[in-house]
Amino acid sequence: MTRLAISDYAPAHGDELVRMWRASFEHGVGIEDPHPLEGQLAYFHEQVLPKHHVRLAWQDETLVGFLAANDESVAQLYVRVGHHRRGIGAHLLGLAKRDSAGSLWLHTFQQNWVARRFYERHGFTAVEFGFEPMWQLADVKYRWVRGEPAA
């Protein structure tokens, strides 16, 4: 694997981030996102960025992943399609764990088995099953606690 470089988000990377995020989401969940890319970028700037530290993962000049997290939760963690199983997501998740207050929670869709297995391998435990109304999909809430063995 080419060395992974981590940087903080800069607005100049917004369009590239949203395109990568969209493709990864659609690939993982198996649905097409009908929202305009401009709306997703606005959502990112208005809802995600103010509440989370956003880090970008780069290999050479290619954006290969991003993490939006705070000391309590992971709001977004996506790896570029075609770059899975290379340690990118694990590295980003490790940063979130390191910077956490000792525990983290996150949601993913129940049908996203790749994401669910990934989080479970990294010590997260399913604690609640629910329904996400915007996407009309079943979701699962995961929790990780520092020092607790994975279930």
Question: What are its keywords?
Answer:
Aminopeptidase; 7 strands; three-stranded antiparallel β-sheet; 151 residues
Brief synopsis:
The chain has one domain (4-145): Aminopeptidase (3-Layer(aba) Sandwich), CATH 3.40.630.30. Helix content is 32%, strand content 33%.
Which helices and strands, and how do they pair?
Blueprint: E1 4-8, H1 14-29, H2 37-48, E2 53-59, E3 62-69, E4 74-79, H3 88-98, E5 103-109, H4 113-121, E6 125-132, E7 137-145
Antiparallel strand pairs: 1-2, 2-3, 3-4, 5-7, 6-7
Account of the protein in words:
This protein is α+β, with helices and mostly antiparallel strands. The chain has one domain (4-145): 3-Layer(aba) Sandwich (Aminopeptidase). The chain is 32% helix and 33% strand. The protein contains four helices and seven strands. The protein has a four-stranded antiparallel β-sheet with strand order 1-2-3-4, sandwiched between helices. It has a three-stranded antiparallel β-sheet with strand order 5-7-6, with helices on one face. The model has no long low-confidence stretch (mean pLDDT 94).
